[in-house]
Amino acid sequence: MTTFTAVDPRTGRPGQEQFEEATLADVRAAAARAARAFRAWRAAAPGGRARFLRSAADRLEASRATLVATADGETGLGAARLNGELDRTTAQLRAFADIVDEGSFVEAIISPADPSAKPPRPDVRRMLVPIGPVAVFTPSNFPLAFGVAGGDTASALAAGCPVVVKGHPSHPATSAACAEALRAAGKETGMPDGVIDLLQARGLDAARALVTAPEMRAVAFTGSLSGGRAIHDLAASRPEPIPVFAEMGSLNPVFIAPGAFSARSAEIAEGLANSITLGTGQFCTKPGVVFVPSTDASGRAFAAAIAERVAARAPGLMLNPQLHAGLKEKLERTRALPGVEILGGNEVKESGALARPGVIMTTDLATFTATPALREEYFGPVSVIVRCPSAESLIDVAGDLEGSLTATIHADAADSDWASRLSSTLTDKAGRIVWNGYPTGVVVVWGMQHGGPYPATTSAGHTSVGATAIRRFLRPVAFQSTPDALLPEPLRAANPLGIQRLVDGRWTKDPA
Amino acid sequence: MTTFTAVDPRTGRPGQEQFEEATLADVRAAAARAARAFRAWRAAAPGGRARFLRSAADRLEASRATLVATADGETGLGAARLNGELDRTTAQLRAFADIVDEGSFVEAIISPADPSAKPPRPDVRRMLVPIGPVAVFTPSNFPLAFGVAGGDTASALAAGCPVVVKGHPSHPATSAACAEALRAAGKETGMPDGVIDLLQARGLDAARALVTAPEMRAVAFTGSLSGGRAIHDLAASRPEPIPVFAEMGSLNPVFIAPGAFSARSAEIAEGLANSITLGTGQFCTKPGVVFVPSTDASGRAFAAAIAERVAARAPGLMLNPQLHAGLKEKLERTRALPGVEILGGNEVKESGALARPGVIMTTDLATFTATPALREEYFGPVSVIVRCPSAESLIDVAGDLEGSLTATIHADAADSDWASRLSSTLTDKAGRIVWNGYPTGVVVVWGMQHGGPYPATTSAGHTSVGATAIRRFLRPVAFQSTPDALLPEPLRAANPLGIQRLVDGRWTKDPA
């Protein structure tokens, strides 16, 4: 039996509780249970799923104090942040319960029969149905909101898909507590055994076995590019390939217009310093590169202004020893790059075993363009300020970047034409475009898009945050000439659920 | 310079016109033109795309006589079928023009700012935008409706994505004529050069180069399982993986309930004989296997009744020599299988060089289950009637089948409970469930779903026919705190396009 423990980021010492590494037999059993649960769930009314999600939210809320303490001991994120994350987690569970109850997420489309058409048209009614068991891989940086009871799990369960979570080994006790809340909620609300399962593992064997288990129908992953790509490739090579919705972080470029740069560079420097160091820079939406239209001197001054503000903050904790060592090593390699200046970060005022200070770098556009290492994400409180010779060159470099989760534009009224052209270019490069703000702090609202072109995700057509995250785990089915009593409720003539439907090309809640 | 020709299925002789095989340089140039066209198109109003699609429909209609004659010479499908297919093709182009004009396909979701929320919520507005240049691979069996100006092209262009088509080598002159209509329509309506391109190739090099061209953002494919899977694997292995929407045909199982079997087996036999031989069985929705609850004697009698009706029909033409030879060979291998009886198809009344008669096979459920070859698609007028010992065994075998585009249930009122349980099982196995009908004849209506779990497609979450086919080529983007004048029109406060939007969780056409 192999076991592992978490590490306390404040002390660097291993936690006391030993967690058993999931075996291949554990993975097979979980996948089989999920498949059985899916068959049982298909026949059940969706209302049960909504009660299940709300009960899970209530149970997490009820264990708030211990949950936050447990997560804090494993991640060092602090009580304020973790309480906020728990708020978000319960809000997500309840929001998806509301979406299930509201019912329109099945995207019902009804094309009535037309016997007079040539050839005559039968009655065709289409809706979305659950895809089947989903594997969820949770990241290190959101132990609750993207954790075992986080957004991926909530949206998959809301869709009607049983979930097998591979918990991140950085915070196994937090994962176990969340799984327990879900399991108890499932039992209380009469859900079949196997709608939620947790596999704890540090090694890769269990992860590989879960992705290749024939019962699994989709994977949701949040984490690194290398991890997400490996899972994507493995899933694509299965005898029956399955979709992988991997959200892998990104550069999140920020573009500052000439007008905004002259008018309020101090204010923007302050905002960037906050956004870069928030959560010790361990957000997939951390601004990793900032393009400024500047002379050499004004660009350096701007970088220095951010660096000064960053240096004034106490170094934050990295989530685990691997991230801590990886960032340190990557910054050492960066120091050897010609044309890149590193401001701050030399003097490590250690405020904990895994502490890392913020680091601001600056370079010119030609060096940025010629240096691939600068276009890779630094996971931590690090950002590079790129001095660009003209406003036009910002639009050009925007067109050359890879995909990102976000792109940010700082622009004033005078910058409007430039900003409009830049926004058009960025629409092809990012999942969310932020105006005069900062990309960190992904609000959970209906319209949120948290995704983007590769390498931000492996599936640019979808989101992992917001109401439409449920769409990942659904597939359309059409019912042709089906007797009304045998149709699923969302498609019945009387519209018993009272949902919004597209009937003969017209949106309505009327019977059809 | 390599060239190739079509083959006339009636005579088996090569056509007179030589077509140049696209070179790698041709592929690279087409991909680069498509990328340039995409950049130009992004700034243009969608109304132009609608005019373009309608002009293409008008031009195809204007050249109906020559187009049908050209396609008939290359496919042997006959004027009646090809005229119907052209009707469908122009209807599809016009339907997608209507969808562009109506505008709701962008799925606008608006979450207004809420400064009183904790943390305060910014204004977030989300819509779908075009994914970028799309590669379309057309099949042999629908030279028009799934051809160069077919549904994949129409839905990609409607989405705002330039298209590079790899035309099927069975009908190059038909492909060229359709491309010419699209090009002329694009010119007439002011579309940028490169919104539509055609590559003609018999070899695989051009196909591979198109799938791996860095400019391409998605692939739509209709054809064989081996071809679709190869393209899926190649696209997944790109440095930047892209989605492949491959529709690869399937078994399309038919299930007959005990009540329906006693009450109207003769009528069903007639319907199946029609559906199996329609288009010489070269439809991806041809019923390839029929499960009947029967004694050995009644099952054999049913198979014989279908075979008799099939034998009474003149053999149809296969589309090309490869399909003709492949089917013959596959049937010869089938003759060697123990426990499988083949009815008809021995005596080939040749009505043309590439003619093939219909073939009905019958076997028992145990043999079907134990014989993998019987669960593979026979592309042609071939179907296997499986004698099942009980009504319950039909539900069991339904649960063991791989994914299909369609599944069909014949059931009467007395079969209702059984049919309901079977339908629930089939919902997980097929993209469309047909009641008391036949799966061939995919009507082009808003609610149509033409897709299904692997191996029917590589992307069960989408459809290649119907209004929602456009969703394949779109991805969501959110605009946060964006000045109204800089928002795309579908998201502006006044709702200038008058489209249906989800505002703060409520469907409305009101301003927001």
Number of strands of chain A: 21
Which structural category fits the helices and strands of chain A?
A: alpha/beta
- Helical segment tally of chain A? 14
The low-pLDDT segments of chain A are none
Using the CA coordinates, give the radius of gyration of chain A. Answer: 24 Å
Main interface by residue count: A-B, 81 and 81 residues
Distance between the termini of chain A: 59 Å
What does this entry look like structurally?
Two copies of one chain form a homodimer. Chain A has 512 residues and is of the alpha/beta class. Chain A is built from 14 helices and 21 strands. Chain A has helices at residues 24-42, 47-62, 64-75, 79-102, 151-159, 172-188, 205-212, 225-236, 258-277, 296-311, 321-335, 365-370, 391-400, 416-427, and strands at 3-4, 19-20, 109-111, 124-130, 134-137, 163-167, 196-200, 218-222, 244-247, 253-256, 289-293, 316-317, 341-343, 355-356, 359-364, 382-388, 404-410, 430-435, 474-480, 501-503, 506-508. In chain A, the strands form five sheets. Chain A has a seven-stranded mixed β-sheet, with helices on both faces. In chain A, strands 19-4-3-20-21 form a five-stranded mixed β-sheet, with no helix packed on it. In chain A, strands 7-6-5-8-9 form a five-stranded parallel β-sheet, with helices on both faces. Chain A is globular.
Helices and strands in order, then pairings?
2 copies of one chain form a homodimer.
Chain A: E1 3-4, E2 19-20, H1 24-42, H2 47-62, H3 64-75, H4 79-102, E3 109-111, E4 124-130, E5 134-137, H5 151-159, E6 163-167, H6 172-188, E7 196-200, H7 205-212, E8 218-222, H8 225-236, E9 244-247, E10 253-256, H9 258-277, E11 289-293, H10 296-311, E12 316-317, H11 321-335, E13 341-343, E14 355-356, E15 359-364, H12 365-370, E16 382-388, H13 391-400, E17 404-410, H14 416-427, E18 430-435, E19 474-480, E20 501-503, E21 506-508
Parallel strand pairs in A: 3-20, 5-6, 5-8, 6-7, 8-9, 10-11, 10-17, 11-16, 15-16, 17-18
Antiparallel strand pairs in A: 1-2, 3-4, 4-19, 12-14, 13-15, 20-21
Helix pairs in contact in A: 1-7, 2-4, 2-6, 3-4, 3-6, 4-5, 9-10, 13-14
